[in-house]
Amino acid sequence: MIRLEHLHKSYGNLKAVDDLCLDVGDGELFCFLGPNGAGKTTSIKMMTGLVRPDAGQITMAGVDALASPVEARRRMGYIPDMPFLYDRLTAMEFLYFTGDLYQMPRDEVREKAPRQLEIFGMMDRAHTLTKDLSHGMRQRVIYAATLMHEPDVLLVDEPFIGLDPHSIRLIKDLLREHTRRGMTVLMTTHILAIAEEIGDRIGIIDQGKMIVCGKLEELHAAAQSTGRLEDLFLSLTMH
């Protein structure tokens, strides 16, 4: 569902992403880990089309994302680490706006928007301006809007920043539920315990290169380590 083939991206002399190859299958929750500046966000931005790679191929949901970027975007959802909301729209209006962006039939939006807000416990704030919502509530609106068109692929960059325990549990359960339905999820996070808990596979990138990738037990075997993911991560990325 996600295929990256020999992906490269440099900024001057800095190799942000260096020969990245990755396959993530249908219904898989892949946790993409790395220290700050490792290349995670640049990789995701190339998948979404926000940044064009210097070389390589990107396939999203069976679509060549470089040759057919609009069609690829139709099939994906993207939640950045600092999502943008239009402050003068209410939560409900933002979902309608998102539905229009994806060219969803208005009847479908009318049916799904309240349901999405209900799932995220937001119906009592449906007509509140997004500027008046807390960070956690704004995050919920973003998830509700992004998932409304039922994307085949979901890219999530640092989904748990600033969230309370209830919201974290809600997002974790939601991601697992959608992968059970066949959605492919690629998620970055610095909370290694969460990656260890919910990731089907884990990839660790450092200085633009994927240094290890697989199930947790496979990572430990490759690094000849035991114990927690945190210990493995630190042993591989400390310079």
Structure description:
With 239 residues, the chain is α/β, with parallel strands linked by helices. The chain has two domains: 1-75 and 153-158 and 182-239, Rossmann fold (3-Layer(aba) Sandwich); 81-150, no CATH class. It is 39% helix and 25% strand. The protein has nine helices and ten strands. It has a six-stranded mixed beta sheet, sandwiched between helices. It has a four-stranded antiparallel beta sheet with strand order 2-1-4-5. Helix 6 links the parallel strand 7 and strand 8. Helix 3 runs parallel beside helix 5 (135-147) and helix 4 crosses helix 5 (135-147). It is globular and about 50 Å long. The mean pLDDT is 93.
CATH architecture of the largest domain: 3-Layer(aba) Sandwich
Might you state the CATH topology name of the largest domain? Answer: Rossmann fold
Total count of domains: 2
Oligomeric state of shown chains: single chain
Low-confidence stretches: none
* CATH homologous superfamily descriptor of the largest domain: P-loop containing nucleotide triphosphate hydrolases
CATH class of the largest domain: Alpha Beta
Q: Which strand-content bin applies to the residues?
A: 25-35%
Rg over CA atoms: 18 Å
What gross morphology would you assign? Answer: globular
Helix percentage range: 25-40%
What is the number of E strands?
A: 10
| Sheet with most strands: strand arrangement | 6-7-8-3-9-10
The secondary-structure class comes to alpha/beta
